[in-house]
Amino acid sequence: MPKGGVNAPVPVAPEATPAVDPRLIVRQEGVKGYIGEFRRRLSSGELGSLPVVLALVIIWAVFGSLNSTFLSAQNLSNLSQQIVGTGMIAIGVVFVLLLGEIDLSVGSVSGLCAAIFAVMNVTHGVNEWVALLSALVGGAIVGFIQGFFFAKVGVPAFVVTLAGNLAWNGLMLQILGASGTVNLSGDDIVSRLYTTIYGQAIAAYAVALVAVVLYVAGAVYDANRRRQAGVPYRPPTDIALRTIVLAIVAFLAAYVLNQYKGLPLALLIFLIFIIVLDFVLRRTSYGRQIFALGGNIEGARRSGINISWIRISVFMICSTMAAVGGLFLAAQIQSASQTSGGGNLLMNSIAAAVIGGTSLFGGRGSTWSALLGALVIGSIQSGMNIEGLSNAIQFMITGAVLLAAVVVDSLSRRTQRAAGRA
């Protein structure tokens, strides 16, 4: 019997307060809401690209203060071309890292595919387009073989790709033959893709304008679609703010490039790859399956995702992008040789993806990480070359930056777990 008699009212449990999506609060509170959301994301470890952007600003400020040549239009334009080869490879590495795996063969694969193109086109006189396609298909086949052993046979990706690093390097030496070096003609398709620069000022500004327009169109379309579905969406003020920031960056970059020679075609191709593959990752069911598999493999398996296919296809993408990067690197030095794909290319490619913000633990990252990471590494190398510092110093600093990126990633994941977001 309730305390106080038969007619005493029975206490009623208070109703649970429904959870409110933070994005709704942001829309209601305006600027104050955005500041609060920013603080919430920082406190919960959701740092995004903020650390690498700050690092890039600091690097540019330091080297710019040491030598004004670093921030000159000529140096920045050259830098935008020099990062393309490594950046292309890093895009493929991003896909593998999203699964929580690693590919140690990308350097050898890039050299192998460059050798395939050079030998077919220069030595045997095969049509340049056929040679180019053969090199790309060769990269895809390598990825399929490695992905098969990993996904179907169960050999760890580390072991498979480490063996591949040796095997594909040996195959490259076999293809190059006794001479060991095949010089490109300089008029082939690969060389033209790398060396072509659009000197008309309108070209760079047109690309910047198209980028801004496409972003606005995509953002508005996505907001309308989400609003009709009754889920949180970006408010017009948010879209406008992001558009302004993008426009400033895009048109400033176009202005700087036009102060030297103009828009490099290689940079444009690099950006197209980033945008298209970012769309694949974030706007397709295939991309969502990659994130799901990297975040929780058991949950992905129970949801019906074809894990073997996703793994094989991701390694195929990685090796194909290694082939693309290897072709641009060959065009940069105008040859394919025994040293192609060697040196610190492997480490720089992986470091670019990690430094740019892709997690080594899987499930978090973006193709834009390749651009940001390649810019950081390329800027360090360019600044130190201008200062006349040795390769030893460059390696140590790049290693320290890589370690710092991994530490930030680890601390971010720990903070997210503590906040219940991981």
What structural class do you assign from the helix and strand content?
A: mainly alpha
List the secondary-structure elements in sequence, H or E.
HHHHHHHEHEHHEHHHHEHHH
Radius of gyration, in Å, reads: 25 Å
Distance from first to last alpha carbon: 46 Å
CATH architecture: Orthogonal Bundle
Assembly classification: single chain
The CATH class, by name, is Mainly Alpha
Question: How much strand?
Answer: under 5%
Helical segment count: 17
Strand order of the largest sheet: 1-4
Number of domains: 1
Shape: globular
Could you estimate the helical fraction of the residues in percent? Answer: over 70%
State the low-pLDDT regions, or none. 13-28
Q: Biggest sheet, in brief?
A: 2 strands, antiparallel
CATH topology: ABC transporter involved in vitamin B12 uptake, BtuC
Mean pLDDT: 87
**Extended strand count:** 4
Notable traits:
ABC_transp_permease; single chain; transmembrane helix; ABC transporter involved in vitamin B12 uptake, BtuC; two-stranded antiparallel sheet
Write the layout of secondary structure elements.
Layout: H1 22-29, H2 31-43, H3 50-66, H4 73-98, H5 106-123, H6 128-153, H7 157-176, E1 181-183, H8 189-195, E2 197-198, H9 201-229, H10 236-258, E3 263-264, H11 265-283, H12 285-295, H13 297-302, H14 307-333, E4 335-337, H15 345-355, H16 368-387, H17 391-418
Antiparallel strand pairs: 1-4, 2-3
